[in-house]
Write the structure tokens for this entry.
Amino acid sequence: MTNTIDEIGKADVILITGSNTTENHPVLSSFVKRAVSLNGTKMIVVDPRRIKIATFADMWLRPNLGTDVAWINGLMHVIIKENLYDTEYVESRTEGFEELKQAVEKFTPDFVESITGIPGEQIEAAARMYAGAKAGSILYCMGITQHISGTDNVKSLANLAMLCGNVGIEGGGVNPLRGQNNVQGACDMGGLPNVFSGYQSVTDLAARQKMEEVWNVSDLPDQPGLKVTDMIPKAHDGSLKSLYIIGENPLVSDPDLNHAEKSIDNLKFLVVQDIFLTETAQKADVVLPSCCYAEKDGTFTNTDRRVQMVRKAVNPPGEAREDWKIICGIAARMGYEMNYENSEAIMKEIAQITPSYGGITYDRIRHEGIHWPCPNTEHPGTPILHIDRFTRGKGVLHAIDYIPPAETIDDEYPMYLTTGRLLFQYHTGTMTMKTVGLNEIAPESFVEMSPADAANHGLEDGSMAEIASRRGRISAKVKISLKAVDGTVFIPFHYAQAAANKLTHAALDPVSGIPELKVCAVKLTKAA
Amino acid sequence: MTAENKIIINGNEFDFDPGETILEVARRSNIDIPTLCHLKGATGTGACRVCLVEVERARSLVASCVAPAGNGMVVQTESSKVIESRKMIIRLLLSSGNHNCAVRGSDGKDWTQFQLNVQQDDDSSELCPVWGDCRLQDLAYRYQVSGDQFPATETRYPMETVNPFIVRDFSRCINCGRCVQACNEVQVNKAISFGYRGAATKIIAAGDRPYADSDCVFCGECVQACPVGALVERDARYQYRQWEHEKVRTTCSYCGVGCQLYLHVKDNKVSKVTGVEDVAPNYGSLCVKGRFGFDFIHSQDRLKTPLIKKLGVFKEVSWDEALDFVAEKLSGIKAEHGSESIGVLASARVTNEENYIIQKFARGVLKTNNVDHCARL
């Protein structure tokens, strides 16, 4: 997030899109609900499902799946045409306005309506509401990113925010809601193919030299490696021989599971390090038992970049070990000693070579976490990014055109499928499915559909439907719901028994490598 | 600060900001006015009357949680009139239900019969499930009050135990309304409200239905807000006694919000989870997963030893054997097929320190940048 969770209450207009906030970020959603219900903050929700947070909104806009660039360009078309943008901000803080203006020229409300299905007058009203904010906050999640146009979608939201002068101010911002406890930290620490910790590029000689010196190694590889979504096809074609997977269950969470499973089976050597024998671990040659969060010390970095303490409360079961100790044990056996007394000693090394974490010490975050960038131990941290300037100087307004999703409906597969999580389960369920009460409330997969779609397919609430895409088929219980809009069904991806990801499409965003998990074409039939 | 904004509490002068309540000024100045119904961040209701204070020239005692501080106001927070009034309120509350802590009094026959009745209601031979962790009990001790001056009120509504997470024990509810505020003004789930009237008042969900049949999402904010034993975590009820537990503060391991929570630990086991109040980012709030979804920690299915697959079957092995084997295989593949033939998936589930070590290992030892994690999935 460019801004903090606390600042949600300081926005006067909130735009939420591609985030089922009350189910996926429940505590954060209460900041939104309080602002809207008790403080009169205005809210626009743009989402293909009539989710709970939409019931709190002043406006709910319903786009067709995968048409985000179109409606965002539509808002900007209206804002520019009606001269509602922040001319001073655009002038002093950004570049590329003329190109952007040209690019959104054709996205008239009528044209946008023809692509997105959102009535033109709603596009106009939403544009005026967002542009009218003193501080407008955009919150988004995987409904924006998990598309072949995911990068374009995010850039478009950034365009919209900069156009209205909403980046670098209190209560504003472009705020991705991170879905995993430490997905922010895993990125910050260099758990990515192109960067070391603190987003220092592996292609940067100075960065490599710094790491080589501190790590006491030589010949660090200088070309970006493979993204996870590239590793799977490489495993399939046999050029990737071995995978070492830590705390992840791709055989439920990856797109197009049948293909992913063949790829994993094709590996010469698979190591899985986890707390449970997951669907993925069962395929491994070696399984290494690790500690869960309650059994170790360390830090997580949350969605608003706040580095916070994790503390050991109980002993691990059996011989389970901290993940870092396991890795150090293997490194030593491969001829490289990594000796640390404890996790705090590792943080000292991180702070030494990671500018944005330079001022993070356990002592400082004992009571309350600090937002990075925090370059030194005198620095209070940075709750709001880009206040006076962007990292590169001026913010770029990108001219972006709309491209349709990779797979659209046709006569054979006439329904759209989108996927996501539920409040009462988490990701692939390895943790939540151990709590009886959660399973009691959310016991099994289902396919959520509108009353009309159910009637058209002769399906009754609670009956079994078969859902097929070009890549696979599953059976799931029918759940007729007013959340669903005609023509689009929803299936949660938690359940391995009826894995929604057997149906999903593995088409990737060319820049980020994210798969288009939020759109594919399916057909529904009554299960035999 | 203008000369007008001065208030005298217990003989000392304090500045206040216009709109601040007497309670807020007092708390800020380390003057302890007891409360039961007051919930920080929510609208004051003045419902419980425990926070009454004496204000010079006022006709009656004033509820400090709702009364704004006024210029030149002279306030006594522990005058004999205040104390008498508080004692009466506490006596009445103690007699209003199954408050079977020892403070209720011990006058022979009635006490025994009362305990027997309560134990039957509870289906347990233990004292109140929140004994030692109850704001009403605290007040009874502080003001040396017992509840046996008035006959115990009959329990009007049966206990609700039909959901997996929260026991609603109306026999211990003092109708302070903190749960209603927690639900409506903090989490804004709007699942519960006051129902019925007068002595029949009850906290109801969806027209007096069980939580499970209402808009309740089991965040448990109401449980954390309840000052007495009316709302208790089902699995912790009678298992959890505050004084036997150590509280360990940590960060939630589900979504990216990073809620601060306490793991309440006894004998190497987590018994319950509560939110850390007054600190960002969650200020005490949690969701159903963070508060109730911790059984996985002690699950029998946890991996306990390293495993190596031999002829298609996992065999338990020692750490030395497992690590030797992995090191040998990775070295072999690296030598035969090159570093680029190996991929490492770090994890959005483990700590920063661990992710750092994982990428250091991939880059520095395996010599590959094929390191990524599940951020995209």
About this structure: The longest helix of chain B spans residues 319-337. Chain B has four domains: 6-78, 91-233, 245-298, 308-376.
